[in-house]
Amino acid sequence: MLVSVIVPCYNVALYIERCLSSIYAQSAQEIEVILVDDGSTDHTVERIRHYLKTNDKKALLIEQENKGACAARNRGLLEAKGEYIQFLDADDWIKPGKIKAQIELAKRQNLPDLIVGSYISLNAKGEKVVQKNYTQNDSNHLWEMLMSTNLGNTCSNLFHSRLFDEGIRWNENLSSSQEYNLMFDILKRIPVVIFDSKVGTIIEIRDSGSISSTNLEKKWSNYIDLRKRIVEYLKMHQPYDLTDKLYQ
Question: Which among 122, 98, 71, 93 is positioned nearest to 20, based on CA atoms?
C-alpha cells in the first residue's frame, strides 16, 4: 500500500537531512516522498538536493514562493498518489517502524479514515517535554479530545487520502490553530478513527524567539474562535449532554 509523505520546508537547512533520513529509514517499502519548499531563503533546497544525490534517493521536490506551511501541504496533496498521507514537518522525525506499524494497524481495522498516533515532544536541549500515549478507548472521546488539543499531532497521525478526495484541505488563511481546524473538518465527516498506542513520532519544539503581543493576541483569538465553532456545530448535530460537557 502506497503512503505519500508530504514535507513542507521553510528555512530548515539545519534539520532537513535528519528528517529525510528518518523517512528513508522506514521499514515500509511503498513510500513516495513529496518535498515542498515554501520559498526558503537559506540553503534548504541545496541540502535536499545534496542529500538525495549523495544517498541515491528519489523524491519530488516542488519549489514555490512563500505561502505558509498549509499552502505547502495542500500543494503536496495535489501530487500525492498514496492511499494514506503522512504529513511530516521538516524539523521533526519518525521512528523506522512508524509508517509500517500504522499501515498494518489500518489493514487490521478495515482501513480507517484517521489513525491518531502517540508521540514525544522534545525541547531544544533534547529533553522530553510531553509524551502522549493513546489507547483505543480514546475513540469514545473524540470531541472532548479535539477541544482540549489532544487528538494526536500532524506528524504522528496518518490520514486516509479519501478525506482529501472529499475536499478537506488545510486552511491557508489561518495563522494558527490550522492543525485542529483540519481535525474539526475531519470529525464533521463522522470518520472512522483508531488510535496507535506506540510512540512513532518525535516532535522538536524549536525556540522561535519572542512572540509579539499582536501575534499572541491573534493566536488566542483563533484558538477561541475554533472552539466556539466546534460548540456551535455540536449544538446542531450532537446530543445536548455532550455540548454541556464541553462547556464545563
Answer: 93
Per the prediction, the chain carries an average pLDDT of: 91
Contact by Cβ (8 Å): 6, 80: yes
122, 128 Cβ separation under 8 angstroms: yes
> What does the radius of gyration of the chain's CA atoms come to, in whole angstroms?
18
**Residues contacting 211, CB < 8 A, separation 6+:** 219
pLDDT of residue 209: 41
Q: Which of 189, 55, 66, 92 is nearest to 47 (CA)?
A: 55
Assess whether pLDDT exceeds 50 at residue 211. no
Which residue shows C-alpha cell 490550522?
A: 178
Produce one character per residue of 115-146: b if its CB has 16 or more CB atoms within 10 Å, e if not: bbbbbbbbeeeeeeeeebebeeebeeebbebb
Nearest CA among 163, 173, 222, 219 for reference residue 193: 163
> What's the pTM value of the predicted model, to 2 decimals?
0.92
Instruction: Give dist(CA 62, CA 42) in Å, integer.
Output: 16
Tell me if residue 192 falls in helix, strand or coil: coil
Q: What value, to the nearest 5°, has the Cα angle with vertex 86 and ends 198 and 190? A: 85
**Do strands 114-122 and 158-160 pair parallel, antiparallel, or not at all (unpaired)?**
antiparallel
Which triple of cell numbers denotes residue 124? 531544544
Q: Give 113's DSSP letter.
A: S
Distance in angstroms (rounded) separating the CA atoms of residues 62 and 72: 9
Of the candidates 38, 95, 92, 67, the residue with the CA atom closest to the CA atom of residue 206 = 92
38 has which bridge partners?
64
The residue written with cell numbers 466546534 in the block is 230
How many helical (H) and strand (E) elements, i.e. helices and strands, does the chain have? 9, 9
Tell me whether strands 193-204 and 60-64 are parallel, antiparallel or unpaired.
unpaired
